[in-house]
C-alpha cells in the first residue's frame, strides 16, 4: 500500500510542478492532520525548509485524520513519519484507552516533542473557580472517543471525580464555544495550543475564565500519566484574563516508523535544530522547539536516530 500511495503522490506532485527529485526512493511520507489544521501546516513548513538541506531523505506531507489515524498509517506502512499527541501515542503503545479494542502498536518510536497542546478548562460561569466546582455542572468534554475526552476523565479522576459527577456533553471546540456563549453549558475542556481560535472569538463577546489545576492534583495526575507536563497559560492570552493560569499539557510529537533508518532520523532531527530560525519564519509553533522540552512527557522509546542526536547534545533518553 505504501508504494501505491507514494505513486499517487508522485503523480499529483508532478501535476503541480514539483520536482520528482524530491520524491526519490528515500522519500519519507509525513502524516499530519486536516488541511486546515496546525499539524498539516507544521508538516508543510518542515518539508519546505528541510528538503533542500537533507541528503538521506526528503519529506512528502500528506493530510490525515490526525493522531490515531497517523499511528495506524505508520503501522501499515502508508506513512513513515507522523505528528501525534503524546498521550495518544502512549495509548497506542500500551494498547489502552483509545486503543483498548485494537491492542498495542509497537511499530513506531519517538523522534521529538514539538510543542504543547494545553488542557484548557474554559468557563463563563463566575461561580466555577476550581475543578471541584464542576460537580453537578454541564460540561463539554470534547468529541466522543477523542483524546480530549480521555484528558477530561483523567483530570477529573485526579480530583476523585468522574463523568458521573457532571452532566457530560460531547462537542467540538467550536460548538463548545458557541454553547458557552449561549449559556447551554457551564464549562468546556479544550486541548489545543493556546491561544485557541474558538476561545479567542468567545472572549470577544463573553467574559471567560480559566479553571486552574493546583500543584497537589497535578502531581497526582502525573503519577498515573507521565505524558502530562505542567504548563502556565500567560496572562492576557485571552481578553479579560489578567493573571497566569496553571494547568497541564500534552505535546504534539513527531514519531517515526521503526523501519526508518537511524541515519535518516538523525539527519532530520539535526536539520530541524540547525534550521530552526527558518522553520520559525514559516510557522510560529517552531519557537517552542528546544532540546529540553523535546524529550519531556515522552513515555514511548526514542528511535535510535533520535537517541543518537540527543545524546550528542548531552541529553540521555531511553
Sketch the major β-sheet: 10 strands, mixed
Average predicted local confidence, pLDDT: 90
Number of domains: 2
Corresponding CATH superfamily of the largest domain:
Periplasmic binding protein-like II
Count every beta strand, where a strand is a DSSP E run of 2 or more residues.
10
What count of helical segments does DSSP give?
11
Please identify the structural class as seen in this structure.
alpha/beta
Here the CATH topology of the largest domain equals D-Maltodextrin-Binding Protein, domain 2
What kind of assembly state do the chains in view correspond to? single chain
Helix content: 25-40%
End-to-end separation in angstroms reads 31 Å
Name the CATH architecture of the largest domain: 3-Layer(aba) Sandwich
Q: What is the succession of H and E elements?
A: HEHEHEHEEHEHEHEHEEHHH
Identify the overall geometry.
globular
Question: According to CATH, what is the class of the largest domain?
Answer: Alpha Beta
Q: Any idea what the radius of gyration is?
A: 20 Å
The percent range for strand residues is 15-25%
Low-confidence runs of at least 5 consecutive residues: 1-25
